[in-house]
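Task: complex structure prediction.
Instruction: return C-alpha cells for all chains below.
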Amino acid sequence: MLTLSLLWLGLGAVIGLAALAAQLAPPRWGGWRWLALPALGAVAALLGGWLGALLFDRVQASLVAVWVCIPAVVLTALLARKRQVA
Amino acid sequence: MQQAHPTTTQQIPALVAARKRRGWRRLAALVVRGALALAFIACLLLTVTPTGRAGVRAALLLPALLTATEPPPLLVAGDPIRHTQRSIASQDGPVYLDIYAPTTPTPPIPGARQGLLLISGVGDNRGVPQLVNLAQSLARSGVVVMTATTDTLMGYTLVPETVDAMVQATLALQHTPGVNSRDVGIVGLSAGGALGAMAAADPRIRDTLGFVLTFGGYFDATNLLRDMGRRALMVDGKLVPWQPDPVPIQSLANTIALTLPGPDQSLIYSGFNTATGLALSPADQARLSPAGQAAYHLLVGDEPDQVAANLAALPASGHALLASLSPSSVVGQIHAPVYLLHDQSDIYVPFTESRDFAAALTRLGHQHEFVEFSIFQHVEVKSGLGIGQTLRDGWSLYQILVATLGAGA
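Output:
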C-alpha cells in the first residue's frame, strides 16, 4: 500500500497543478497557490485512494482517487474565489 | 502630439502580443478544465458501473495474457495474493486444486468475489509459468482462481469421470468463503475446454454457473479423430491439410486404447513417442486386433482414404466413450453463456471444432460468442507478432474479458 499511497499523492499533486493551469486558484492566494493546490490535491487523492481500496479494491482505488480529488480541488478553489469576491 | 504618436505605435504590437498571450492562456485553461471534467466523469463511470469495473480489470489483465507475464501495473495496483493447495474426492479419484486468491478482505462493492475454475487440459500443467502467471494475474485483479486436475488428466488420458471431477471442483469453488456462488465461471484450455463444457451441462451446476469459456477445445471427439485420421480439416467445404502435434495423438491413443483388448493397449502404449507420435513396426501392427488396427491407422493418419471404414471398425464401447467425452452430446443441456476462443492455426485441436460448437449453439439459439485468433499457437501467445495483428486480436480478447469479468465486477 505504500507504493500505491505514493502514487495517489503524486496523482493528486498533478491534478492540483492541472487546476492551477486551469486558472482555478483564487488570485488572493498569491504565490502560495503553487503549493496549496498540489498539496490539497495530494491529500484528497490519498483519502480517495484509501476510500476506493476499502469500498472497491486496489485495482479500482486509483480511479476513485482521481474522481475524489478533482471535485475536492476544483470546489475548494471555486469556494475560495467566491468568498474572496464576497 | 506629433511626438506621442510614434510611442503609441510602438506599444500597439506589444499590446496585441499581450492580448494574444492572454487569449492562449485562457484557451489552455479551458482545455485543462475540460480534461479535468472528462477525467472526473470517466473515472467515476469506470468505478461505479459494473461494466466500467470489468473494463478496468480487463485492461490490467490483457497485457498479462498477451505477454504471459504479470505486468508491473497489476503488480503495483493489484491485490496481494495467496496460493494454497488442497484435494477433493470425485468419481475420477482425487481432484488436485490450486487456489490463488486475494488476501485482502472481500470488498463491500460488489460484496463478493468472482470465482474462476481453470482447467488446463492434459498433462501436469500446475507449474507451467504461463498458467501460473494467468492464475496469479486474475487473482491480483480480485478474482478467486482455482485450477483443477486429476491423475488421469495428468496421465494424458480423457475419461468421462473427469467431468464429475470438474463439477466437484466447481461446487468447491462456489462454496469458497467470499466467492459469489452464482458468479463462478469455468475457463477450459485445450481438452479442458471440452471437460468444462460438459461440466457446464451437469444438472448440479448448470443453473448456477456464470459462464463457460473454452479456449482451443474440441466439440466432438469422433470428429477430432476423423480429422486426425485424414490429416486434414474440412474448412468451408474444402479439405485443408492439417498435421497434429503428438500431444493430442497421445491423449486420443490413451483414451481409445481403454476400449481395446489388453494386448492392443500394451502395443499402442509401447509404440508412442512423445516427439514423433505413434509408430508401430509392421509386425506389431499385424498383432493388433481389427479394431486395434482401425484405431492405429486413425491415430497415425496413414490411411486417409479409409477414415470412415476405420471409424466404423472401432468397437461400440469406443464410440460410446468418444460420445461421452464430447460436448456435442450435451450441448443442449448447457444453460450458461458460452465463450469460444480458438487459434486458427491450432495444431493440437482444429479450430473447426469451435466453429462446429458455435454453429450448434446458434442452431439452439443459445447465448454465445466465438472468436478466432491468429496471435496464439493453441493456447499460448506466439512471439514476433505484428502490431496490427496484436491490436486486432487484443481488442477481441479485451471484449471477451470484459464480458466474462462483467458479471462479478
